Amino acid sequence: MKKDNKRIKIENGEFIVDGKRIWINGTNTPWHKWNDFGGGYDDAWWDSHFKALRENGVNAVRVWINCNNENGAILINNYGIVSGASDKHWADLDKFLETAEKNNMYIMATLLSFDHFKSNQALKWRNVMENDDASESFATNYVITFVSRYRYNPYLWSIDLCNEPDWIHENADCGKIPWKAISKFFACSAAAIHESSDILVTVGMSFPKYNADGIGCEGNKVSNTFLQELYPNPDAYLDFWSPHYYDWVGEHYGVPFYVTPEQWKLDNSKPALIGECAAKGSKGNTLITDYENAYLNGWQGVMPWTSNGVDKCGGFDDLIPATKYMFEKYKIIY
């Protein structure tokens, strides 16, 4: 297969590679060492881990490119103006994405997290979102550099602009930033990516409250309409939804694996996958039944937290029975 044909695209609401469907039989490996890139990146560990995941049916991994920037990898001043990134940050990412390609592992690259907004650099990052010039500097001097550097590697299949921005809006320790500022920042970066590459764009929202319309929700803060009202540019849009799910969410919105994305209130104009969920499975269910029912209900993938046991939500041994089961049973998984 030609390298260009290995890129994941969207057709008829599904992910496609070289004309064949790829269901995201995925996981989160958010970090090996917190702030890996420009910090303590260990390529041998990632290579070994990717091999083990691939052997057990995993085809995609969500990875945090920058956890909270306390390693100084992204060069940002007190006003939130971003001038670029460290040489080591780029060198580590060069190795990482080469290793992903070598192992045929698709990467969802999460650029930022709500953690930035409560770190010792919090005021800098709050300025990035609340100042238009700072938002533009992040898009121009970091996002476009990132995309331009790796756009020809098809295994960088998507960019998640921010992990769980809901908390940036809701939590005092993250600044309680208005959605108009958060979403305008996303619109600016999404437009930059779409103008510079074929890489897909998403945002990993915590729950449907700000990712959907209808009863119990406050409107989709990352819809095409909302983004483009704030940042008038036709390239300011997300390509797919990637909400997160944990059992506390189910108390308010139900369990997504057992209903369709539309029944879980999402706009059905875009594909949807579950970008985080507990690797130990949802309450009263196994991860195998969560994966399989998500597949049968039209979700385009599942990415549990985590493959490497960074917390109490589960690890490799919890994950692989489900990914192996899906790989062996459903032959449409590329």
Describe the model.
The protein is of the alpha/beta class. It has one domain (3-329): Alpha-Beta Barrel (TIM Barrel), CATH 3.20.20.80. It contains ten helices and eleven strands. A six-stranded parallel β-sheet has the order 10-9-8-5-4-11. A three-stranded antiparallel β-sheet has the order 1-2-3, with no helix packed on it. A hairpin with a 5-residue loop joins strand 6 (74-76) and strand 7. Helix 1 (43-55) runs parallel beside helix 2 and helix 6 (179-196) packs across helix 7. It is globular and about 50 Å long. The two termini are 13 Å apart.
As a whole number of angstroms, the C-alpha radius of gyration is 18 Å
* Protein structure class: alpha/beta
Helix-strand topology string: EEEEHEEEHEHHEHHEHHHEH
> Unreliable stretches, pLDDT < 50, 5 or more residues?
none
- Beta-strand content: 5-15%
The level of helicity is 25-40%
What is the molecular shape? globular
How many helices does DSSP assign?
Answer: 10
Query: What's the rounded overall pLDDT mean?
Result: 97
Strand order of the largest sheet: 10-9-8-5-4-11
CATH superfamily: Glycosidases
Query: What's the end-to-end separation, in Å?
Result: 13 Å
What is the total number of structural domains? 1
- Number of DSSP E strands: 11
| CATH classification, class level | Alpha Beta
- Biggest sheet overview: 6 strands, parallel
